[in-house]
UniProtKB/TrEMBL annotation:
It holds the Pfam family MFS_1. It is a multi-pass membrane protein. GO terms for cellular component: plasma membrane. GO terms for molecular function: transmembrane transporter activity. It comes from Pseudoduganella ginsengisoli. The chain crosses the membrane at residues 12-37, 43-67, 79-100, 106-130, 151-168, 183-203, 242-264, 270-291, 298-317, 329-350, 362-385, 391-411. This is MFS transporter. Keywords: Cell membrane, Membrane, Transmembrane, Transmembrane helix.
C-alpha cells in the first residue's frame, strides 16, 4: 500500500507542497511571537497577537467549511495560499526593508488577517485528501501526511531559530538604522515563498471524478452551515463521536497547554525540561502515526478510541507527581504514541464516514472542537491551578478522562461504531 501511495501523482504533488508549506508555517510560528517580544517585551502584547489570530479562526471556521463544500477544498485552499503569501510577504518586506514602519497595531491587523486565512485553510486542508486520493489509500495517506507534519513540528522551530540567530533579530536597532532583524525577515520570506510554491504544486493536483459532487450554489452560506450541522446531527455515529470529543476537549483539552509548562518549572529544571518533555511527546506522536498504518480490523473504531482514551487517562494521572525528566518522558512518550495513532484513525474515519459534499463542514466542526473549546478549557485549568496542586490537577483530569471513556462505553453506542472501510468506486489518478 505504501509503494502504491507514492506512485500516486496526486499524492506526490500534494505532499511536496505540504512539506514546504508546513516548514514555512513553523518558521512563522516562531518568528512572529519572537518579533512581538523583541518589539515590546510584553507577554500581554504577545497574548493579544495570538488571540487576534485565534478568535477569528474559531468564529469563521464553520463558514470556511461551508465554502469548502460549495467550491471544493482545492479552490478554497488555493485562495488561502495566496492570501497567506500576501500577509506573510508584507511582514517580510516590513522587517527587511521598512522596520521603522512596523507598529503593534499593524501587527494586530496582520495577525487578524492570518487568523481569517487559517479559518478557511484548515477545513480545506483537512478535506482535500478524500477528493484526490483513492479511498483505500486514505489511511496510509493520512498517516504519511500527519507524520510529516509532526516531523516538521519537531525540526521547523529549530531551523527557524537558527535562521534568526544567524541573520539577526534586533528589530529596534533595525528601526533606528543601527542593526538588522534580517533573520526574522528571512523566516517570513521563506514562509511567503513556501505558500507560492505550494500553490503551484496544488495546481498540479486533480480531483478524482467521483469526489466532485455537484455543489448547491444557490444556498446561503449560513444556511449551508445550519444544514450541515443538522445533517451531521442526524447521523447517530457522527453525532455520538462529536459529542464525546467535545466533552473530552472540555475536560482535558487545555491541560497540557497550561499545566505542562508549570510542571517543568515547579517539579523539574525549567525550560530545558519542558523542551525534553515536548520532544518526547512529539516523538511518541510520530511513532503512533507510523503505527496507524496497521489497521485493527477486528476491533471497532469506537471501541479503539475509548480504549485509547482510557489508557491516556491512566497515564496522565501520575504526571503531576514526577520528580525527574525521564519519568515525564516515559509517560508523555506513551501518551504521544496513543494520541498519534488516534489522530490518524479519527481523521480517516471522518473522511470516510461523511458524504463528500458535507466533508468541509464536518471537518470545520471537528476542528472547532479543539481550536475553540480546548482554549476555553485552558482558561478554566489556569483558574483551577490557583486552588489545587499540579498533582491534583493531573490526577483529576486523568480520572475524568477515564470516567468519560467508561461512561461512553457503557451508556452510549460508541463502542459499536465500526470503521467506515467499505470502498467506494473512484477513478484512479
Amino acid at each position: 500500500m505504501h509503494n502504491t501511495l507514492w506512485r500516486d501523482s496526486n499524492f506526490r504533488w500534494l505532499m511536496g507542497g505540504a512539506v514546504l508549506s508546513g516548514l514555512g508555517d513553523q518558521f512563522t510560528m516562531i518568528a512572529l511571537p519572537w518579533l512581538v517580544l523583541k518589539m515590546t517585551g510584553s507577554s500581554l502584547a504577545l497574548g493579544l497577537v495570538i488571540a487576534t489570530m485565534s478568535v477569528p479562526r474559531a468564529i469563521f471556521m464553520l463558514i470556511g467549511g461551508a465554502l469548502v463544500d460549495r467550491y471544493s477544498p482545492k479552490s478554497v485552499l488555493m485562495v488561502t495560499k495566496f492570501a497567506n503569501a500576501l500577509v506573510i510577504g508584507t511582514l517580510a518586506a516590513l522587517v527587511l526593508a521598512m522596520p521603522a514602519m512596523l507598529t503593534l497595531p499593524l501587527l494586530y491587523a496582520l495577525a487578524l488577517a492570518l487568523g481569517l486565512a487559517q479559518a478557511f485553510a484548515s477545513p480545506a486542508g483537512t478535506s482535500i485528501l478524500p477528493t484526490v486520493v483513492a479511498r483505500e489509500r486514505l489511511q496510509a495517506a493520512n498517516s504519511t501526511m500527519m507524520g510529516v507534519r509532526q516531523s516538521l513540528m519537531l525540526m521547523g522551530p529549530l531551523l527557524g531559530a537558527l535562521l534568526m540567530v544567524l541573520g539577526g533579530d534586533d528589530i529596534h536597532a533595525a528601526a533606528n538604522g543601527g542593526g538588522n532583524a534580517n533573520g526574522i525577515g528571512y523566516a517570513f520570506g521563506f514562509d511567503c515563498a513556501s505558500f507560492l510554491i505550494s500553490a503551484w504544486t496544488l495546481a498540479k493536483v486533480h480531483a478524482l471524478a467521483a469526489a466532485n459532487p455537484a455543489p448547491v450554489q444557490n444556498q446561503g452560506v449560513l444556511h449551508a452551515v445550519v444544514e450541515g450541522m443538522r445533517t451531521l446531527w442526524q447521523n447517530v455515529a457522527v453525532r455520538t463521536c462529536f459529542i464525546y470529543w467535545s466533552l473530552v476537549a472540555v475536560a482535558v483539552g487545555g491541560t497540557m497547554q497550561v499545566a505542562l509548562p508549570l510542571l517543568a518549572s515547579r517539579n523539574l529544571d525549567g525550560a530545558a525540561s519542558l523542551g525534553i518533555l515536548m520532544s518526547a511527546h512529539g516523538i511518541g506522536t510520530l511513532a503512533g502515526m507510523a503505527m496507524s498504518r496497521t489497521k485493527m480490523r477486528t476491533i471497532p473504531f469506537g471501541a479503539t478510541i475509548l480504549a485509547i482514551d482510557a489508557l491516556v487517562g491512566l497515564l496522565m494521572a501520575p504526571l503531576g507527581t514526577i520528580t525527574a525528566a525521564w519519568q515525564g518522558m516515559a509517560l508523555l512518550g506513551a501518551i504521544g504514541v496513543l494520541g498519534g495513532y488516534m489522530q490518524v484513525a479519527i481523521f480517516t474515519w471522518i473522511q470516510q464516514s461523511v458524504p463528500p459534499h458535507m466533508l468541509g463542514r464536518a471537518m470545520s466542526i471537528f476542528m472547532c472542537i479543539f481550536m475553540g473549546v480546548a482554549p476555553l478549557s485552558g482558561t478554566v485549568i489556569g483558574a483551577l491551578l490557583q486552588w489545587i496542586s499540579l498533582a491534583q490537577l493531573f490526577a483529576g483530569c486523568g480520572a475524568l478522562l477515564l470516567a468519560l471513556a467508561t461512561f461512553a462505553w457503557m451508556a452510549t453506542p460508541m463502542r459499536h461504531i465500526e470503521s467506515a472501510s467499505a470502498p467506494r468506486a473512484v477513478s484512479q489518478p
